[in-house]
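fold description:
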Amino acid sequence: MSLHCRYVFIFLIALLTNPVLAAGKWSGNVALEYRYFTENALDNRQHGDNWSFSAQPEYFRRWDGERQSFTFVPFLRIDENDPERSHFDIRELTWVKANKNHEWRIGIRKVYWGVTESQHLVDIINQTDLVENIDTEDKLGQPMVNLSLVRDWGTLDFFVLPGFRERTFPGAKGRLRSQPRVDTDQAVYESSSGQRHVDVAMRWSHNIGDWDIGLSYFRGTSRDPRFVPGVDSSGAPVLVPYYDQMRQTSLDLQWTTGNWLWKLEAIARQSNGASYNASVAGFEYTFTGIFKSKKDLGVLLEYHHDSRGTRATTPFQDDIFVGFRLSFNDRQSTELLFGSVRDRDNSAESFFLETSRRFGSHWKGSLEIRSFRKAPPTDLLFMFRNEDVLQLELAYYF
């Protein structure tokens, strides 16, 4: 039994047998998703339009004068065509004990670091669940022990991360994937401990006036694999993920002044015998009550830099992001976000549109559109040239 499964088993037994935990509350959602692709896939094994179903219930219980709590969030997706996208994960399975000036958080959790919109450079604790969405916003649960010290000079977090989660990738039949595909069955690790390697991290965060500051350090297995060429069992070419050991020091800053939000994320990383730095910086300015209405319009601009240049394993090495966020501020919580990323070197572009709206007290509809344009063969986005997609989701919340 893997270390991840052991955590799940122990906490589920506690949930089912402890009378204190049994008195908690369930909530969550179930959703139906449809994806429409505007062009045929590059690989004839890949599917066309696609349906999938997802469920994410959540159990929460607080006791001991609200000093202790327990959270359980499983996630399930069943995909029509791609077996790799049909998967189950424990997003959270956590016991929290809060005291006056410190907290213990033990179990499986999701931890988010960062302030920018178009890329989350400093967010390193959780692995990306890439079969969910190409935007890297969805994360797998990470086993951890987290001690948080709360002081007047800031909050200091220590993390011990026992057990590594491999990144998920679409399978041979999946869409929004690389060409050739990534073969996760052949994953290679620099550490002889493989998935059992114990990673460590620490973070200091504080609010000083209008400034939000975070300084972080991570040492362990890289969440971003590099890829080496290989072949699968049938002799077809594949990409083999290689997980290096790495060290990363990072800074995230946000300055709030009037309608302005100024943002910065920067990292310095040592991995694979080399060092590099990367950053993303920009702003969001909000026009409130546009056209004498309740609507607010946010304008976003961010610049991406990676010292590796064209050798970078990410498309954000010298790119500009421009976006607009429209909040209707209505009872239905209607929102719209549009963004465009353009490479300054070769003019490769990607676009996205995300919008959502609640219907009644239980339903929510979402629309997402992604498009890739003008990428030359030397750009990482070239592999997605036929992957323009429109995604609709209808979710029921309980």
Residues 3-17 form the longest helix (15 residues).
